[in-house]
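Input record (Table S2, row 292):
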Amino acid sequence: MILLDGKKTSADIKEEIALDVRELKANDEKTPHLAAIIVGSDGASITYVNAKVKACERVGFESTLIRLPEDTTEEDLLNEIAILNVDNDIDGFIVQLPLPKHIDEQKILMAVDPDKDVDGFHPTNVGKMALNLPTFISATPFGILELLDRYNVETSGKNVVVIGRSHIVGSPMSILLSQKRKVGNATVTITHSRTKNLKEITLQADIIIAALGIPEFLKADMVKDNVTVIDVGITRMADPSKKRGFRLVGDVAFNEVAKKAAYITPVPGGVGPMTIAMLLKNTLLARKRRSK
Ligand code: BQF
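Output record (BQF complex):
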């Protein structure tokens, strides 16, 4: 079994980006600048957005964090987005999800200028991704492609089973892996909560992407020998022995599945850190596109 080490790989990628930034600075070019808007004070969301700001510092990017109160109106949030859209200092920005229930997420994502949409959530960018045109590929699917690429996991002609159909992971992942691209050309099956006989389907899989959000859902009896398993789950489970009071649990019963796997991502330290690294990569791409 080979561990797909997202922590190490993301550190490598961040080092590569830092090198690029040094070169930009040496040539008197603008430093990439990422902004993030967070609405409210959900603990996990604050952790994620802080990790993004810290990663910006690590690679030499400028960053701006805009914190808005939980009771921010949709109108006020749209106004903040409009300001970032026209701010020439900002290369890319994200709106940290999830948003409070009184705000229409779709309406917000559609307000972001597609050229600054480094999360790749705007319908224009989702459309481009689906058509295999140059765009911002959203950070988690992009990170998974990059991890498979760097570990030389063969995808061409393989049976991939994606569990979960979210707009953020399952759906784009199934599209990307079926495309004619370096990490792609797979035969993809997308499964979800209404899928019948899931186990019969996963037992056929060479590669499984578990992105359904149920802790330790994928068990050893659901996978064949030498499977590659990508675990996108990150549920917080109460754990009094930890200083934060919780631990992160993936969608895969890691210990038992790892015994049968050729490659597997850990949680934490697998897909999560790759998500952060690819957001930086998209921001660098946004900066370079804007200077053209
Ligand atoms: C790790 C996210 C659900 C909903 C909104 C490192 C992250 C997570 C785990 C991280 C995530 C998940 C992010 C680890 C960003 C990934 O070591 O395993 C980093 O920060 N993520 C997000 O911004 O919004 C989410 C998951």
